[in-house]
Amino acid sequence: MLSKKTLTRVAFWILAALAALGLVQVVEADGNIDLVNKWAWSTNAGWINFNPAFGGVTVCADHLEGYAWGENIGWIRLGTFSGCAAHTYTNASAADYGVNKNGSGSLTGYAWSTNAGWIKFNPAHGGVTINPVSGSFDGYAWAENVGWISFKGHGLVSYNVVLHPPRLFLPLLRR
After folding, report:
1. Residuewise pLDDT in 10s, the chain (175 residues)
2. Where are the beta strands (DSSP E) in 3-136?
């Protein structure tokens, strides 16, 4: 019987080999979402973490980048661009999709999850915004396969996705 330490090493090397072959996606830790206030909720998909250990969403001046994690739906990619330079996603192809942010904090466009499909941030009867003062997200995104995703809980269950630190209209630098 192999020891726990040996099994951990074997698992690490297997994952490293699969990542090198491109069979497993490795997501770097990153983002500027608060360490505590990082949760969105979907009745059909469960909790979605916008600041997971091996991912993270970055809110840039005009768009979002990075990855959120949903235990029931896997990785959610917020856009194909990286580097936080000025960029607007066209959402016209699989090579240029993502979530855009305008000057007032309204989000538009699509995120992608292999398991949940396209997630629209400005659907009819919904929409997601970021408060320019508090950095607090609010509203609802829509995914055809999992339904509504809520960014702020009201009432008995309190949750929220919040920028850390809230600095929406200043140039956002990566940590």
Report:
1. 656 555 445 444 454 444 444 433 333 446 899 999 999 999 999 999 999 999 999 999 999 999 999 999 999 999 999 999 999 999 999 899 999 999 999 999 999 999 999 999 999 999 999 999 999 999 999 999 999 999 999 878 899 999 987 654 444 444 4
2. 33-42, 46-49, 56-59, 64-70, 74-77, 99-101, 106-113, 117-120, 127-130
What is the bridge-based pairing of β-strands 46-49 and 161-163? unpaired
60, burial (CB in 10 Å: exposed 0-12, middle 13-18, buried 19+)? buried
Residue 93 structure tokens: 């192809």
Query: Cα(first)–Cα(last) distance of the chain, in Å?
Result: 44
